[in-house]
Amino acid sequence: MSTGAISIVVVVAVVLAAALIIRVVRAGAGRKERALRRRFGPEYELNVAQHAGDTKAAERELEERLRLYGDLRTQPLSGELRERYVAEWAGMQEMFIESPEHAVTGADQLLARLAHDRGYPSGRYEEQVAALSVHHAEHVQGYRQIHDTAARARDGRADTEELREAVVHARPFFEELVRPPHHSATNRPETARQRDHGERRGEGGLRRWLPGTGTGHTRFGHTRKGGAW
Q1: Residue 45: pLDDT over 70
Q2: What is the pLDDT, as a whole number, of residue 204?
Q3: SS3 track for the chain
Q4: pLDDT-above-90 percentage for the chain
Q5: C-alpha–C-alpha distance, residues 11 and 56, integer Å
Q6: Domains of the chain: which residue ranges?
Q7: Other C-beta atoms within 10 Å of 119: how many?
Q8: What is the mean pLDDT of residues 51-68?
Q9: Phi-psi bin for 207: left (phi > 0), alpha (psi -120 to 50), beta?
Q10: Which residues, 6 or more positions from 177, have their beta carbon under 8 angstroms from its beta carbon?
Q11: Phi, psi at residue 86, to the nearest 5°?
């Protein structure tokens, strides 16, 4: 084989090897992206947007959150503490009628305490939210929204509708954190017989206050003008 032919073979081999490496790298990157999307859901897209579309930077941040908080062991609430939080959240409903600003500020503080009692970091807000985003990616944005709105309310920069929306979006996050460990948002609706049995076991208190469960709950936040949460 001539020197020219050998050179051509070498070049072709290098090109094929480079193409193979690129395919392997892209496949690996695609698997990583899919895994992060499955884990973080809407938090993935939000983080990409916060990095001005820089997917790699966003994924590095999410991977760092997983490294720091992926193995975090949380703890369930005791029945007594759960009932206390549910009653306190419901109490914000009455407060909102007279003082929406204080109700939103109180709800924000309640969520911080609730996250702490579930075992999430509580030293810094940013650290707490990062940990929560790993385990509650579907709803953690509601916590961010009410926290930011509470800060605006303290400065007198939030109107009533903004305050109302903040609580509406925070409520699923509250429900997820306060839900008993054997309950799931994807559980099938319970039958009347199961509901009656649960109430006989003393579970009626939580059911009465959580939206969408049972028949005696109170909806959070009716305003004087008739607007509902």
Answers
A1: yes
A2: 40
A3: CCHHHHHHHHHHHHHHHHHHHHHHHHHHHHHHHHHHHHHHCHHHHHHHHHCCCCHHHHHHHHHHHHHHHCCCCCCCCCHHHHHHHHHHHHHHHHHHHHCHHHHHHHHHHHHHHHHHHCCCCCCCHHHHHHHHHHHCCCCHHHHHHHHHHHHHHHCCCCCHHHHHHHHHHHHHHHHHHHCCCCCCCCCCCCCHHHHHHHHHCCCHHHHHHCCCCCCCCCCCCCCCCCCCC
A4: 62
A5: 31
A6: 9-69, 79-187
A7: 14
A8: 96
A9: alpha
A10: 111, 114, 115, 118, 136
A11: -60, -45
pTM comes to: 0.69
Question: Helix crossing, 140-154 with 42-50: angle to 10°?
Answer: 50
Structure tokens of 137? 């990616």
Question: For residues 183 and 80, which has the higher predicted lDDT (pLDDT)?
Answer: 80
The tokens describing 173, both together, are 């996050």
